[in-house]
Amino acid sequence: MKTKQIPAIVMLAAGFAMCIISYVNGYGISFLIRSMFWVLIGFYILGYIIKIILDRSISSLDEEFTAEDLGFIDGEILEDEETEETGAVQNKE
């Protein structure tokens, strides 16, 4: 999973929401610019923290699988015990 864009997406979404809220409430341009700066910085940091948490949780899920774990030995596919049993039952019918 690519998490590189998460801080930017969180920051831009917060900036968009702040623009809408500022327009509806009729705030002035000087207040809008100063507050927009701090909102964007704050939400960029929040997005970066979210990215770090996701990277750590994803990396803990990634495990090294061997060929035996996937059912392969020397390039051959191992049959499951269940499929061998059902295959035997189907052949008897």
Fold and architecture overview:
Helix content is 74%, strand content 4%. The chain has helices spanning 6-25, 29-61, 67-70, 81-92, and strands at residues 72-73, 76-77. The chain is mainly alpha-helical. The longest helix has 33 residues, at 29-61. It has a two-stranded antiparallel ribbon with strand order 1-2. The mean pLDDT is 79. α1 runs antiparallel to α2.
Main beta sheet: strand number and arrangement? Answer: 2 strands, antiparallel
Structure summary, number of beta strands:
2
Rounded to the nearest angstrom, the radius of gyration is 27 Å
Could you say which overall geometry the principal axes of the C-alpha atoms support?
rod-shaped
Q: How many separate helices?
A: 4
Strand order of the largest sheet: 1-2
How far do the termini sit from each other? 47 Å
Which regions are unreliable across 5 or more consecutive residues at pLDDT < 50? none
The portion of residues forming beta strands comes to under 5%
What is the ordering of alpha helices and beta strands? HHHEEH
Task: Give a quick summary of the entry.
With 93 residues, the chain is mostly helical.
Structural features:
single chain, two-stranded antiparallel sheet, mainly alpha, rod-shaped
Architecture blueprint of SSEs:
Elements (H helix, E strand, L loop, with lengths): L5 H20 L3 H33 L5 H4 L1 E2 L2 E2 L3 H12 L1
Antiparallel strand pairs: 1-2
